């Protein structure tokens, strides 16, 4: 095939690495979505909006504080702001809807996307923003003759750390274990004297924190705009669906498939690159309609 | 300890319990006998606040608790062992016990070590995922889990259902020891032999209505009523 003739081993390796760093952001966002889906059973459509807010807050915080410090602090501040916002929404509104049917929850989170979208417009206007990474993460280093962006390396190192953190949280902490129990049988957890409502609040907050973190990390790599919420929420839902609803490792696997097919698609057939990840999703769902790994639903 | 006054409980639109009243005194083991579907589990769920009654009231430790959330009832010392052995399947045996642990108000109370002393077979499977246990092991675990919350009043819903005779015997023996521990127990059972050997008093429930109440000796002697309401 003519289109593939320009592919060398080095360019393939480079593209795989770029794909893997994109995977990191997809994984961080999707794992948060999956966590909420698995434990609270809420398909949180506003997850993408929180990601967008995370990106905008990162921009504002980084610019306000200024310099390299500004960027590093913004990476912590933005997810925290998003988590606090989500806590307010959960305690103020969402918790009163837990006993309602899924459609109600879906509509509620859809309403949130509209509110958050307008909130962003109100605060930041409709212009796009762009943020540059601190000098330490700017530029590229040489990878077998091809340049590999330093920021991507940073993402690549961060991904496994976040995965490890999430694993520790769900398997080694009391709140994580209670969340796993409540995901399957919230009534029984309540009957043992645990206030499930607070377990849910904590899990929702952690899930949304991850959306905010994803938004913060993506900020220096693309324009921060209205509409970035729509793209990510679609991708994140597809990832969670092919991985297995509520399964954290499924989110990782799904993000890998999505990120890598996207990256390799760009190399193989640039004009149609956008199609590749969606084809991968279709292929997965044809063979595994319930997702690759066990779903908690 | 507990007084249930004329409760009516529904599942959706279906009316399950009709004007049910019962009393459990401190230190007693009270049995609820009845066929499958008679309303035993619904009664237990009503008391635990899982399916709150629409009418009537529940007084627990001298206070009105009708409509109180389950976790608040649990914190007031109500322990619950469900009839369908709902262990936390994704957690290990040890984790099932640890996550619900609540220290006793006074004295040593129950902790993981003591639960393992009480049900030695659990000790050997501490690290096993609870979803993979046998029926008997799961039942020991759900009882152990309830003990970890250090209850003063324990609701036991059909603990021997569907278990092998040897396991039933062992469980009955251990449940018998709760009395010495100062636990008050409300035990729902289909197994008459177990119920009659453990209880101080008994109630017979049929089609959501209490048909009989009395001392366990009277119930044991009264074959006619048992045949009428309990024979399948």
If you had to describe this structure to a student in words, what would you say it looks like?
The complex is a heterodimer of chains A (297) and B (232). Chain A has helices at residues 9-39, 47-65, 67-92, 102-124, 150-172, 174-184, 186-191, 196-218, 228-243, 248-268, 275-287; strands spanning 140-143, 146-149. Chain A is mainly α. Chain A has a single domain (2-287), classed as ABC transporter involved in vitamin B12 uptake, BtuC (Orthogonal Bundle). Chain A has a two-stranded antiparallel sheet. In chain A, helix 2 crosses helix 8 (196-218). The relative contact order of chain A is 0.20. Chain B has a domain at 1-77 and 153-158 and 183-232: 3-Layer(aba) Sandwich (Rossmann fold), CATH 3.40.50.300. The model of chain B has no long low-confidence stretch (mean pLDDT 93). Chain B has 10 helices and 10 strands. In chain B, the strands form 2 sheets. Chain B has a 6-stranded mixed β-sheet with strand order 6-7-8-3-9-10, with helices on both faces. A 4-stranded antiparallel β-sheet of chain B has the order 2-1-4-5, covered by helices on one side. Chain B is of the alpha/beta class. In chain B, helix 4 (112-118) packs across helix 6 (135-148). Chain B has helices at residues 40-48, 70-75, 93-98, 112-118, 120-123, 135-148, 165-177, 192-198, 216-221, 223-230; strands at residues 2-11, 14-24, 29-33, 55-60, 63-64, 78-81, 153-157, 184-189, 201-206, 209-215. The radius of gyration of chain B is 17 Å and the shape is globular. The two termini of chain B are 32 Å apart. Chain A binds chain B through residues 174, 177-178, 180-181, 183-185, 187-196, and chain B through 48, 50, 69-71, 74-75, 80, 82, 86, 88-91, 95-96, 98-100, 102, 145-146, 149.
